[in-house]
Design goal:
Elements lengths: L2 H8 L3 H19 L6 H11 L3 H13 L1 H11 L1
Helix pairs in contact: 1-2, 2-4, 3-4, 3-5, 4-5
């Protein structure tokens, strides 16, 4: 995800969003062995967050626990 897109979506919380996405990568790696989640899963997490940093934390957590539920939530918002 490009920094400019996060700044547009999270404004003053863009740095925190970047930190959360880094934690998302680490958790994904620990759970699935892949370096990072697929781009679509990250986009789903950002979509569900709707620019709210606390929702990003929840959606990233959901993405690691069950990315299919995250996909359903993101699709419902699109």
């Amino acid at each position: 995800m490009e920094r400019s897109a996060l700044v547009a979506g999270f404004g003053e919380h863009a740095e925190s969003a970047l930190d959360l996405l880094e934690l998302f990568d680490l958790a994904w790696h620990d759970c699935y062995g892949d370096r990072s989640p697929p781009e679509r899963v990250v986009i789903d997490a950002i979509t569900v967050a709707q620019g709210d940093i606390s929702k990003l934390a929840r959606s990233a957590f959901l993405g690691v626990i069950d990315f299919r539920d995250l996909r359903l939530a993101a699709d419902a918002m699109r």
